[in-house]
Amino acid sequence: MKHSSNNENGAFKQWMNQLLSFGLKREQIAGGRQQDLSNQAWLRAVMKENAKKNKEKTTMLNKLPVIVLDTETTGFRPELGDEIISVCAVRLTGIKEEDRLSTHVKLDRALSEDIKKLTGITEEMLAEAPALEKIMPQLLSLLESNLIVGYHISHDIAFINHYLWKTIRRRLTNPALDMKLILERLYSGRKFNEFDDALKYFSIKINNRHTAEGDTEGAICLWKHILDECEKRSVRTLNDFHRLLV
Length: 246
Fold this sequence. Notes:
One of its GO terms (molecular function) is nucleic acid binding. This protein has 11 helices and 5 strands. It is of the alpha/beta class. Strands 3-2-1-4-5 form a 5-stranded mixed β-sheet, sandwiched between helices. 23% of the residues are buried. About 4% of the residues have low confidence.
């Protein structure tokens, strides 16, 4: 029995090394159970996704599909019960808008006065809005596997991932870039701690600040400035972009 187990382990390690040689990452391989490693459909799907990501790295930035994303939430801690109350996601190719999702999200409890004042969102608006479970399929369809960009984007992704993990034990696998980091790399020595700092620097004025759609419009304007600056610096592909951020 021990000899048989050793043979199985050796075969498994050999198969792992073969997959790694194809350019797959260990976390991708770990996503399938050991008995799934011989499943050709699973292997083709993983390799297809890997090939797509590799191709995207050499795609010109002005032709790269990206999702500009913003959410409004009741607080900062989804694990403590804070929830999404508004979401906006816009798919761009270069600077051309291809698709958009913008909606309030149903909430069955009272909003704090601070959130009402900050966002202009009322409990009546949320009572009539669709529930997140109705919105999520459309949002995921829009996101696909595209690069997500936004300001302090980890906040928005954390809320989406919290919901996905709670409901279907999944998380987003999309690559994501924070505009704050990008701007501070492009304009070395300057700090863009807050979204308003970046808007002020580029003299961007937006309506409905502190709403998901308004802030997404501001982020789209920032993305256009980022692409312009990248072009000036001959940063033209996603690979170039990643080297800039390192």
